[in-house]
Design a protein that fits this description.
Blueprint (H helix, E strand, L loop, with lengths): L2 E5 L5 H11 L3 E5 L2 H7 L7 E5 L7 H11 L4 E5 L7 H10 L4 E3 L8 H7 L1
Parallel strand pairs: 1-2, 1-3, 3-4, 4-5
Helix pairs in contact: 2-3
Length: 119
C-alpha cells in the first residue's frame, strides 16, 4: 500500500485521518504544519501528500509548491474546512497550484483512499 504524509494543524483531524487510512492498509506519517511536512518528506518514501490549506507557520499551498521543487510528480490531495474565503475558494486555488484532488470537509475523509486512486 501507499505511504502517506499528512499535514494538518488540528489535533483531532490528524489522528482521525491516520486511523482511517491505516484501516485501508496505508502507512501514515503526520506533520503539524507545512514546515514539519517539508522536513519529513522523502521522495523515495512518500507516495501521497494530504494537506490542510490553512495552517500556521507554512500553509498548505506554499508547502506543496515547495514539495514540487523536490519531487515534481508528488501526488497531492488538498483539504479545507473553510476560512475567510470559504472552503471552495481555497480548494479552487489549491487545484490551480497543482493539487490533483480536493476534499471540502475533513470529516468526510472516507473518500481519501478513493481520492488517492485518482490523484
Amino acid at each position: 500500500m501507499a505511504h502517506i504524509l499528512i499535514a494538518d494543524d488540528q489535533e483531532k483531524i490528524r489522528p482521525m485521518l491516520k486511523s482511517l487510512l491505516e484501516q485501508y492498509g496505508h502507512e501514515v506519517t503526520l506533520a503539524i504544519n507545512g514546515r514539519e511536512a517539508l522536513n519529513q518528506f522523502r521522495p523515495d518514501k512518500i507516495d501521497l501528500f494530504i494537506t490542510d490549506i490553512l495552517m500556521p507557520d507554512m500553509e498548505g499551498i506554499e508547502t506543496f509548491r515547495e514539495l514540487r521543487k523536490v519531487e515534481a510528480d508528488v501526488k497531492i490531495i488538498a483539504m479545507s474546512g473553510g476560512g475567510t474565503l470559504g472552503a471552495a475558494e481555497y480548494l479552487r486555488m489549491a487545484g490551480m497550484f497543482g493539487a490533483k484532488e480536493t476534499i471540502e470537509n475533513p470529516s468526510t475523509c472516507g473518500i481519501c483512499s478513493i481520492s488517492y486512486q485518482n490523484a
